[in-house]
Amino acid sequence: MNSRSIQNDLLNYTLNNSNHDTKRNYISMSHIHLPVDNLIDIYKKGFETSPEIKLKCYKGYQMERDILIRLKKIYGDKIKTDIEYHSGFVKGHPDFEIENIPGDCKSVLMDEWLPTNHIPKKVYWQMQGYLYLSKKLKGFLIYESRET
After folding, report:
1. pLDDT tens string 79-108
2. 92 bridge partner residues
3. How far apart are CA 70 and CA 77, in angstroms?
4. Residue 43: exposed, middle, or buried by beta-carbon count in 10 A (0-12, 13-18, 19+)?
5. Which of 31, 70, 125, 130 minimizes the number of CB atoms within 10 Å of its CB?
6. What CATH number is given to the structural domain containing 12?
């Protein structure tokens, strides 16, 4: 065994366990910001994938899981996970609910990418979808930077 084989094994493990879905049997709330033609294309053909996308997903999901663990340690049973909102072919999976209010966790690479005045359009519409399907007027959005 050498350092190159360890590097390759670790990379392959990470790619194979990234939790990046290439296809879903529904239209995901996380893509609801896209034009209808794109949504239909993704529904029929699946998601674009690459090693870079899978590595990004792995790290993002890892950070989101960590936030949820901390929230559960703070709020205990008030935090609900494994939530699904749906209406026909459209589904959304917010990361958590607290007191029946949907919440989502987002991770960014650097502090300068943390939203200050406005959240990205993609995230805005994703949250609007969660609010619509849950019939709520407010939600929680938690951002965390890998840098701090």
Report:
1. 998 888 887 778 889 999 999 999 999 999
2. 85
3. 12
4. middle
5. 70
6. 3.90.320.10
